[in-house]
């Protein structure tokens, strides 16, 4: 049933792109044409290389860079993080996936990115994944994280999903100093979410938004 469900999504996105071929390079929801995405190249690079300070995001991007593949759940998380936390244009994420994914398919890739960015055929514009909660739910023991982010292998399960919460003494004991062996979070989750919501409201009112 799940396999069939995924096939339906594939067919759906192919149908959407067939009828709206412009979507490869534009938003389905035209109001997002007013959204001024961030041009922070350092944040984009941190996302691409897997050094955001959010373990699940970093594990996913490193898996992608190393293997050319990434689990669908993690694809949604990293896409949401790029567009909603870093407020970077989904087209840059779409392009990066096109360069790296072995199973790349244009319609599904475009549909997935516009779904995550809420710029596509989707009714939930403020859907924002919490990468820490997603990690706790789908990788409770942190095995996926430890596989692709080896510097965190010694981090206890209690802190593996949010290493930035580790006490300094524990960081020293296991040799994982935040900001040294592993980066501190490049954005604060709550602040980023609030910022995106504010910009979204301004966009809906027709005002120019600045990230």
Description of the molecule:
This protein is an all-alpha fold. The protein is built from 10 helices and no strands. The protein has helices spanning 2-19, 41-49, 55-67, 72-85, 90-100, 106-117, 131-138, 143-148, 168-174, 189-204. The protein is globular and about 60 Å long. The model has no long low-confidence stretch (mean pLDDT 94).
SS-based class:
mainly alpha
Mean pLDDT: 94
Helices and strands, in N-to-C order?
Answer: HHHHHHHHHH
- Strand proportion, as a percent range, falls in under 5%
Backbone CA Rg:
18 Å
Q: Into which percent range does the helicity of residues fall?
A: 40-55%
By DSSP, the count of extended strands is 0
Please tell me what the overall shape is: globular
N-C termini distance: 41 Å
Helical segment tally?
A: 10
Brief summary:
The protein is mainly α. The chain has helices at residues 2-19, 41-49, 55-67, 72-85, 90-100, 106-117, 131-138, 143-148, 168-174, 189-204. Helix content is 54%, strand content 0%.
Explain the layout of strands and helices.
Blueprint: H1 2-19, H2 41-49, H3 55-67, H4 72-85, H5 90-100, H6 106-117, H7 131-138, H8 143-148, H9 168-174, H10 189-204
Helix pairs in contact: 1-6, 3-4, 4-6, 5-6
């Amino acid at each position: 049933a799940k396999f069939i469900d995924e096939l339906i999504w594939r067919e759906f996105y192919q149908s959407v792109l067939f009828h709206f071929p412009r979507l490869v390079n534009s938003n389905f929801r035209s109001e997002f044409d007013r959204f001024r995405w961030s041009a922070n190249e350092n944040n984009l690079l941190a996302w691409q290389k897997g050094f955001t300070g959010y373990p699940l995001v970093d594990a996913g991007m490193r898996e992608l860079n190393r293997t050319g593949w990434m689990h669908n759940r993690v694809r949604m998380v990293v896409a949401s993080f790029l567009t909603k936390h870093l407020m970077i244009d989904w087209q840059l994420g779409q392009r990066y996936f096109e360069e790296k994914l072995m199973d790349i398919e244009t319609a599904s890739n475009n549909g997935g990115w516009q779904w995550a960015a809420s710029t596509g055929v989707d009714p939930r514009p403020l859907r924002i994944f919490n990468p820490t909660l997603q990690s706790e739910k789908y990788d409770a023991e942190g095995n996926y994280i430890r596989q692709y982010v080896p510097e965190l292998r010694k981090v206890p399960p209690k802190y593996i999903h949010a290493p930035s919460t580790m006490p300094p003494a524990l960081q020293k004991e296991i040799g994982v100093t935040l900001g040294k062996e592993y980066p501190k979070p490049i954005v604060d989750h709550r602040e980023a979410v609030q910022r995106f919501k504010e910009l979204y409201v301004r966009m809906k009112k027709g005002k120019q938004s600045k990230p």
